[in-house]
């Protein structure tokens, strides 16, 4: 078997010698250990830190379990932005590796679900960007079937980033559609970022209207 030589760290650009190896093939040990990993319990419905454990987020009413991997902070934030808006596929491969590891680590938790659904983008946005980052990030995992035709973004909307909370809710309302084949299916919805939760709330609402069973959510990052 050919052994690949150590690479350069994507974050600090230092050569990854053997003492600097980390669980990620793209990062040295020091940079890996500085990642903004969510290491405190989060609300099982909305992914926030609730002192009382009582979730009062109305958008999360249909969510059975919420999983989040990182805080939406640098360098994770910078890599996500680089992938989405600059076509930074090397950053994308780095992020995708984290997601692959998450699925392998949590296989027993999610293996009984029927599918993983990437949050879709509108066809016009897809033509502009050339790819959907949520689908790209899920391509390599093999724990759950990846279904890209169950959810559809049926109405073009402004970018959520930068909008006030109430404007985000109005902007995204009734913009998704779910195929009837999701009826009685237990699914895992995936998005790269959760900020106010309005997008995920709309996705879960349309899935429930189509008769979905349990709806679980996984986000690569979560704003707190």
Defining traits:
224 residues, alpha/beta, Rossmann fold, 2 domains, two-stranded antiparallel ribbon
Structure description:
The protein contains 8 helices and 6 strands. The protein has 2 domains: 1-34; 38-222, Rossmann fold (3-Layer(aba) Sandwich). The mean pLDDT is 92. With 224 residues, it is of the alpha/beta class.
Main beta sheet strand tally, sense and closure: 4 strands, parallel
Q: What is the percentage of strand-forming residues? A: 5-15%
Name given to the CATH architecture of the largest domain: 3-Layer(aba) Sandwich
Pattern of helices and strands: HEHHHEHHEHEEHE
* Structure classification: alpha/beta
Class of the largest domain in CATH?
Answer: Alpha Beta
**Overall outline:** globular
The CATH topology of the largest domain is Rossmann fold
What are the low-pLDDT stretches, counting only 5+ consecutive residues below 50? none
Count of all domains: 2
| Number of DSSP strand runs | 6
Radius of gyration: 18 Å
Number of helical segments with 4 or more residues: 8
Rounded mean pLDDT is: 92
Strand ordering within the main sheet: 1-6-5-2
Helix content: 25-40%
Calculate the terminal CA-CA distance, rounded to whole Å.
45 Å
């Amino acid at each position: 078997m050919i052994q690949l030589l150590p690479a350069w760290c994507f974050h600090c650009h230092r050569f990854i010698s053997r003492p600097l190896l980390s669980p990620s093939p793209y990062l040295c040990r020091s940079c890996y250990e500085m990642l903004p990993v969510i290491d405190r319990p989060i609300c099982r419905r909305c992914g926030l830190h609730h002192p009382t454990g009582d979730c009062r987020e109305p958008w999360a009413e249909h969510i059975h379990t919420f999983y989040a991997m990182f805080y939406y902070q640098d360098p994770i934030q910078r890599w996500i932005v680089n992938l989405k808006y600059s076509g930074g596929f090397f950053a994308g491969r780095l992020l995708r590796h984290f997601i692959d590891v998450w699925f392998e680590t949590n296989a027993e938790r999610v293996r009984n679900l029927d599918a993983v659904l990437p949050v879709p983008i509108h066809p016009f946005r897809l033509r502009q960007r050339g790819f959907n980052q949520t689908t790209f990030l899920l391509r390599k995992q093999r724990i759950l079937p990846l279904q890209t035709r169950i959810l559809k973004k049926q109405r073009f909307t402004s970018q959520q980033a930068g909008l006030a909370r109430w404007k985000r809710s109005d902007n995204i309302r009734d913009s998704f559609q779910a195929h009837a084949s999701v009826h009685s299916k237990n699914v895992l919805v995936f998005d790269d970022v959760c900020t106010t939760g309005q997008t995920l709330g709309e996705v879960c609402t349309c899935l429930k209207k189509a008769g979905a069973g349990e709806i679980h959510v996984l986000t690569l990052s979560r704003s707190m």
